[in-house]
Design a protein that fits this description.
The protein has 4 helices and 9 strands, in the order βαβββββββαααβ.
Length: about 190
């Protein structure tokens, strides 16, 4: 099922996420729905808060960008309760976009190397050092689990420059080619 993507301004994107347990209801179906939603929206990653679930679950399929970023070839992941450790290295600036912030992209500085521990869809443990664009995708999605979005990493001046675009998203004045859920309207 193709689920609506929750857009910037919706409180679920800032909420604390809970760990996923093996008895989480219909987890396999939820993971399948998240992949379908990500593919339909033409994303390479999707975190559960982006579909309205405050749980520590991410799906990634980085293979579509493998031609430009070879480290992404064949990388299709389900990350349950991931734990991210930043490793030493320079911060690199690259353009990022997000399904929850349609029509925007900004240069974001992120570290090039991370260590990630996670459980897969069968609750088997994994640990891996990731680098390059794959590490960026993971950091971007991990931020969603921590109640952050990528624009939290840009300068205040840059954020001021895109304020009107952010307001348009919050107020529901954007259109997307995928189903979305806007922030609840504030009562006056």
């Amino acid at each position: 099922m193709n689920l609506p993507v929750y857009l910037y301004g919706h409180p679920v994107l800032r909420a604390t996420t809970d760990e996923v347990t093996p008895d989480y209801p219909d987890l396999k179906a939820l993971i399948a729905d998240m992949f379908e939603t990500m593919y339909t929206s033409e994303g390479v990653g999707l975190a559960a808060p982006q579909i309205g679930k405050s749980i520590r679950l991410v799906v990634i399929d980085a293979d579509p960008v493998a031609e430009t970023f070879p480290e992404c070839a064949g990388r299709k992941l389900v990350l349950i309760n991931p734990e991210l450790e930043v490793l030493d290295g320079d911060n690199v600036s690259r353009s990022e976009g997000c399904l929850s912030l349609p029509g925007l992209s900004e240069d974001v500085k992120r570290v090039e190397h991370i260590r990630l521990n996670w459980l897969d869809e069968n609750f088997e443990e994994h640990e891996e050092v990731m680098s390059g664009f794959l590490a960026r995708i993971v950091q971007h999605e991990y931020d969603h689990l921590e109640g952050r979005v990528y624009i939290d990493h840009i300068s205040p001046i840059r954020k001021q420059m895109i304020r009107r675009k952010l307001t348009n998203i919050v107020e529901g004045r954007v259109s997307c080619n995928y189903p979305v859920r806007y922030a609840p309207r504030k009562r006056k």
